[in-house]
Amino acid sequence: MKKNFILAVFCLIISAMTFAQVPQKMSYQAVVRGSDNNLVTNSEISVRVSILQGSIDGEAVYTETHSATTNANGLVTIEIGNGTSNDDFSAINWANGPYFVKTETDMNGGDNYDIIGVSQLLSVPYAMYAQSAGNVPDVSGFLTEETDPTVPEWAKAETKPAYDYSEIYNTPEIPTIPTAVSAFDNDANYLTSYTETQNIADVAALGNSLNTQLKNVTDPTENQDAATKIYVDRLISRIDSLSLRLDSITTAHEEILEDIDLRFGFTDERDGNHYNMVKIGNQIWMADNLRYEGNTTIGTTTSTTIKYRYYPNNNSSNVATYGYLYNWPAAMNGNSSSSANPSGVQGVCPNGWHLPSDAEWRQLTDYLSSQSEFQCGSDSTYIAKSLASSTGWSSSAEICNVGNTPANNNSTGFGALPAGFYSGSYYGFSLYTGFWTATENSSSDAYCRGLHYDTTDMGRNESNKDYGRSVRCVRD
Fold first, then answer.
1. Number of structural domains in the chain
2. I need a labelling partner for 367 at 20 to 30 A (CA). Which of 84, 161, 208, 256 fits?
3. pLDDT (tens digit, 9 = 90+) per residue, 409-440?
4. Residue 49 buriedness (CB in 10 A; 0-12 / 13-18 / 19+)
5. Please, how many CA atoms are within 13 Å of residue 410, restricted to the half-sphere of its CB?
6. Cα(67)–Cα(448) distance, rounded to whole angstroms?
7. SS3 237
8. Is residue 104 part of a domain?
9. Do 240 and 388 reside in the same domain of the chain?
């Protein structure tokens, strides 16, 4: 419920009336304000008044209601004892106090009252209390003789001496009365000058807040000094400028580190194998086939569940150049399939690298197809030569095939080598290379990307998961 507030001014007045009976009512006035602190003017409201005995939570010995209207100044006036009530106001025994007045209001003029406040009646109206005095007890046994005060003779004379207090004891000193009382005259015995000294702490201490603007404040020099707006604005401008410079330095630093990595490659901390790196578009790829053994067994058969690695063309001496061939379980190393870009699948890759998804391979081929420098002829799909190494491939007579003039291959620096594949036997060495993705096609096969000595593009195929293929990783 919306709260409203009443500034109450109690006017407990018993008018001097020429009646034998004391008037049984008290005047009550209050200034009514809404929750927005604005005056509630010219509005009909309902007021319920209760007289509480003993405490603010005491018993209500009298309750009445009023329908009243505020004036143009938000002032409402009622007479307590003259409202609508089932109680007898004259039955209140004011001698059995203390008493408290509780006021409740409904700003809409109904009977849905808000508790506004409770105030103590610090002085019981005199006439009402006097009425309860009733009969004075017999004091004849206490007062036996009355003696009038003695008045000196001079005070009885018709002509009295001027300012003669000599016969009156304990008289006060009579101050010198100034001859002028004008507020604008600096007469004797009046204040002629006034000087007041305050500092900022004195002002703030009044309400623990200045709640105003301080003008012409100097720039801070000490730790606890206040700062001007222009000082703060200049400081923010300097911070922004430094942030831009820092961003530029950070970017340059990252570019330098990246350039160093691309120049010198990295070492797999797991086994000490060193790999070259190449940046193609926004991706950084390993420029060598993976050679990690780990806990993967050298396979002599195929499996879709057991991790196996194989020697290219069944020759262990080929590993140093061509890397291992891995079945899909070994390439994934226990991770689930992913079609995201990046895949989020580390698989058998080094820390900080991951097995690329089919979408990441598509990003690579789409980028190469958009760049004429990586195309053979005018066909945007003829990108195989830009990815293939310049050595190891069988010869092909067709222009733009991988095996045609291999010395013109590898414009990207990717250096794909024809390691062949394993499917129970070894096939395609010097003729073909295939790379696993982290994206499966079904429970039995997954997507791979491949190059062939007599083709012009990079193929996309579904391969049995038990086949052994090469692995290239992408940096996170």
1. 3
2. 256
3. 999 999 999 999 999 999 999 999 999 999 99
4. buried
5. 17
6. 89
7. helix
8. yes
9. no
Are 25 and 58 spatial neighbours (Cβ–Cβ below 8 Å)? no
Alpha-carbon distance 189 to 25, whole Å? 48
Task: Indicate whether 241 and 311 sit together in one domain.
Answer: no
Query: Which distant-in-sequence residues (6+ apart) come within 8 Å of 391 by Cβ?
Result: 406
Record the tokens describing residue 230, joined without a space.
């222009």
Residue 399 tokens, joined: 């222009």
Predicted TM-score (pTM) of the model is 0.51
b vs e for 234-252, b when ≥16 Cβ sit within 10 Å of the residue's Cβ? Answer: eeeeeeeeeeeeeeeeeee
Question: Contact, 40 vs 34, CB < 8 A?
Answer: yes
- Identify the bridge partners of residue 32 per DSSP, sorted by sequence position: 6
Q: Are 262 and 276 in contact (CB under 8 A)?
A: no
The size of the chain, in residues, is: 476
Poorest-pLDDT segment among 80-84, 281-285, 332-336, 345-349: 80-84
pLDDT per position as a tens digit, 80-102: 999 999 999 888 998 888 999 99
The continuous run of DSSP H or E covering 130 comes out as helix 126-133
Q: Which amino acid is at 258?
A: E
Q: Name the residue among 389, 385, 380, 337 with its Cα closest to residue 359.
A: 337
| Cα 375–chain centre separation | 53
Of all helices (H) and strands (E), which one includes residue 232?
helix 229-264
Same domain, 33 and 84: yes
Retrieve residue 422's tokens.
């394993």
Distance, in Å, from the CA atom of 304 to the CA atom of 302, rounded to the nearest integer, reads 7
* Residues 239 and 315 both lie in one domain: no
For residue 358, being part of any structural domain is answered with: yes
Q: Are residues 372 and 247 part of one domain?
A: no
pLDDT confidence band for 18 (50 / 70 / 90)? very low
Residue 269 reports pLDDT greater than 60? yes
SS3 332: helix
**CB of 154 within 8 A of CB of 167?**
yes
Contacts of 304 (CB under 8 A, 6+ apart): 327, 328, 329, 444, 464, 465, 466
d(CA 328, CA 309): 10
Which residue segment(s) compose the domain that 39 sits in? 5-132
How far apart, in Å, are the Cα atoms of 68 and each of 3, 86, 105?
Answer: 19, 19, 10
Q: What is d(CA 342, CA 334) in angstroms, rounded to the nearest whole number?
A: 18
What would the two tokens of residue 92 be? 């209140």
- Strands (DSSP E) found in 39-113: 44-53, 59-69, 75-80, 99-106
- The Cα–Cα gap between 40 and 74 comes to 5
